[in-house]
Amino acid sequence: MKNTPVCIGSGLIALDVIYDNTKTSPSFLAGGSCGNVLTILSYLGWESYPIARLGDDLEGDRILEDMKKWGVKTKFIEQEDGTDSPRIIERIFRGKTPKHRFYLKCDHGNWLPRRKPFLLKTLGNIQNKIPRANVFYFDRATPSAYNIAKNLKNKNTIIVFEPPKFLHDNVFYDCLKIADIVKHCYSQAQDTEKSRINIPLEIQTKSEEGLQYKATFLKNKEWKPLPAVPVHSLVDAAGSGDWLTAGMIYMLRMYKSVYDIPVKKLEHTLNFGQALASLNCNYIGARGMMYHISKDKLIKLANKVCIDKKIQIIVKTDRRIHVNSKLASQCKVCLCAN
Question: What pTM was computed for the model?
């Protein structure tokens, strides 16, 4: 394995259209769980290779532009003519306790274009070109994602699966069985079929309460809670889960297998991700922190938060991220900026 750690990713990559109610026009950033995790990892010094299917449109161009800015390797992202790139609207509501909401419809009531899975038949064209990797991350249970996971696991890649919801089909359970780490929301916890699958490390997130984990690879079959790091000044909680995942994967760079993680290091691995998640809540957008703070400073700060269990800094939160004039001036079934 090369010195620079590598992560391959498959799943949701979309254009985030972010409206802050104190601003007059939205910001446009690469988003989606897979898009965020792999872009964060690239920012943290990894080589990231997302595998995805976008449209050959302005929105797809903006996604690629933003990801490339952070060094993401986009050679396996297919831009398909006649396909609309997926997009998600986020609206931030200021108040005593700021909140955010995601929308899958525009202001005119039209459904936004949704994610189209990378096709299994297309995968055959790139399968032999996919590099060896430390980690394979995926957030959707599809035949192509399972195929990639199976091939990479045979090459000693750690498999991280983060489903947004639990499904009840063979492909989904095959993905659970092949994963080394499964991270999901606590509300998805009750699943009788899942309980019969031995997941080496399972992480259940519980929003502001933190998370709980079960590490069967350490012979620990009991859930252990890890409280969240209190947020210094909440601006936008979007993307917290993606920073948690990316921080955890970042720490996995030291291990060839999940079974190599020492007992004393496991909680620090999760705490590091929690620290990044809380720190990002001080910024607008799912990856807003990346646009305001250097990698080295952030890693140092996150390690300090892991020790102190609190955030003692005041961060800048009012700087705009990016507005693309071509996107902002149009009004079609996805971006009602006018």
Answer: 0.92
